[in-house]
Amino acid sequence: MKPFLQVLRGEAQKVPPVWIMRQAGRYLPEYREIRAKARDFVDFCLTPDLAIEATLQPIRRYGMDAAILFADILLIPQAMGQSLAFVEGEGPKLEPIRDREGLKRLTVNGVAERLQPVMETVKGVKAALPGTVALIGFAGAPWTVATYMIEGGGGSDHALIRRMAWSDPVLFGGILDALTEATIAYLIAQIDAGAEVLQLFDTWAGSVPAPLFERAVIQPAAQIVKAIKAHAPHVPVIGFPRAAAPHLAAYAARTGVDGVGIDHMTPLSFAAGAVTPDKALQGNLDPILLLAGGETMTDEASRLVRAMTGRPYIFNLGHGVLPATPPEHVAQLLAAVRGA
Amino acid sequence: MKPFLQVLRGEAQKVPPVWIMRQAGRYLPEYREIRAKARDFVDFCLTPDLAIEATLQPIRRYGMDAAILFADILLIPQAMGQSLAFVEGEGPKLEPIRDREGLKRLTVNGVAERLQPVMETVKGVKAALPGTVALIGFAGAPWTVATYMIEGGGGSDHALIRRMAWSDPVLFGGILDALTEATIAYLIAQIDAGAEVLQLFDTWAGSVPAPLFERAVIQPAAQIVKAIKAHAPHVPVIGFPRAAAPHLAAYAARTGVDGVGIDHMTPLSFAAGAVTPDKALQGNLDPILLLAGGETMTDEASRLVRAMTGRPYIFNLGHGVLPATPPEHVAQLLAAVRGA
Question: In the beta sheet, which residues pair with residue B69?
């Protein structure tokens, strides 16, 4: 069995498997070269030849232990009927959904079919991957995707979704439920196309008001994991509730995930205390360390690996690799992790 | 003794004392009226007549249990010699400090003297306050103030300070140490002018990479508290390490603070488990609830008060009151807390 999958069955590895979030991305010159071939970012994600190539680039260059499907968490709202555009230098823009009319315009049925190009990418990557490398499919978690859908873009304080979540729990719950259902269909289609592991990115879990965390984050994740396990009991799920340390214990215990991603603000020792040792931990090197590279980075990576000895652990960053990262620092990092 | 001060000695009150962060601010029409009289925001902070009036407005309107000095956390870098401007709609802009030359240009000596107008404000407020209302002085915590000094403004990912903290701990430590020293002098001057309680705002504590938290947040806070206690053993200190839940236990145990502010993303039950019950908790209502007001807000406020029964607790928000808050909702909130 692939080491990456063994870890997610709770079996600690002597050398932890490694991948890094956004490993296929702008810091790689070969990525920038193929990115220029697409009309826009959504087009890039939905052109299987390009997305397959982007997914495979970091595997070829670094020999990562896992490839992650190249796609975007906002393909789902688009497939549900919400307009989406990526504005250069400004991030994603969506026609915001803020009332029942907006919710009614969303379609759950047929989401996976409309995202068929993503499934072609999964199939193409699977066919090309070396036998030891695992293929990770993914989706944004409902809270995080809903922040974009309701705010209409990135934003930072997520005031509109917080206000809706408190003031109109029925509308908010309706959006979450529609997203949960669409996400399940999308992830199951990824499994059927060849994904061996799934990751649920809850990038904005840290902005959920504490009393709403159960409804906004834990419930949808639990529903998604349950549906995945019913369809494919052997496919592990990694949950990444970013910046939500006080909820880690509940998240790990109640969602049914097999692994938990840990951001770089949360001490790995805290995470190890909050998550039972049958579940894998993944993370949590500060991505900023890769800008300078060198011993500060490699010492810290080695420290994390040593601290996780005997625990099922996947080496990764605490957040995505930064676009300004020199590619050779990623190679240094992998050497440190594997030689640690 | 004022109920606010009793709580900070570890004595639970039947009705928790209340104040709200940014209670003197833009949501109040009377604030906007006097704000218009000053040339710019820094001028406003440094004009005692205006700052006294701003501090007192919410006391008059709502009968808060504590007044907080009207000032800004960036007055310290300015008093240390760093240029500061508030650009309308863009937030603060500072000439960034990123090397040893920049650090050398900072002056610690004389900071409190250069901030004499702030002390005039403290004196003026103290003379005007009703006898039951406590006067809170404050400063930004060194990490948070340093983010502005190094980034040159607000920003969101704090990449430059994180990079410096990892790569050049000597320079980073030098900036923290200078700030810590200046902050001690500034806070002691506030005590001497009449401040009865101090709050240390570490708004950006949540962006500190986990392995650096001890150096960036806990050490400076501990030094500041120690110096304050040496000067004025009776003056309690509230620390507010925002969005840093996994470090709350260590922060409460090792900094020597008498109370800990809790943001709205952290369950109050988690905070109550992390902080020993001899210390007060303060917070943590989501400020977004004040936009809509009504029962959702008052029910949640009552729930917090009930959950804290028997614990020393100060009612407050989890972050500053939003400028769009209707002032009457603040009155509703206080009625709910006091009648809960």
Answer: none
Residue B156: predicted pLDDT: 76
**Three-class SS of residue B304?**
helix
ipTM of the complex: 0.96
pLDDT digits (tens, 9 = 90+) for A71-105: 999 999 999 999 999 988 888 999 999 999 999 99
Domain positions in chain B:
3-339
Q: Is pLDDT of B304 > 70?
A: yes
Residue A340 has pLDDT above 70, yes or no: no
pLDDT of residue B340: 66
Mark yes or no for CB contact B244/A265 under 8 Å: yes
Task: Based on the residue annotation, tell me whether A40 is a catalytic residue of this protein.
Answer: no
B296 touches chain A (CB under 8 A): yes
- Comparing C-alpha atoms, which of B65, B181, B38, B222 is closest to residue B129? B65
The pLDDT of A252-276, averaged and rounded, is 98
Q: Check whether B225 has a pLDDT greater than 90.
A: yes
Best of A167, A248, A298 to substitute, by most chain B Cβ atoms within 10 angstroms, is: A167
Which residue of chain B comes nearest to A285, CA vs CA? B209
User: B10 pLDDT exceeds 90?
Assistant: yes
Amino acid at A79: A
Spell A310-326 as b/e; 16+ CB within 10 A means b.
Answer: ebbbbbbbbbbbbeebe
Question: How wide is the angle at C-alpha B290 spanned by C-alphas B289 and B294, nearest 5°?
Answer: 80
Closest CA to A249 of A211, A216, A282, A277: A277
Q: Would you mind telling me the total number of residues written for chain A in this entry? A: 340
Closest by Cβ to B264, choosing from A209, A270, A286: A209
Cα distance from B159 to chain A (closest Cα, Å)? 7
Contact of B148 with B94, CB cutoff 8 Å: yes
CATH fold of A3-339: TIM Barrel (3.20.20)
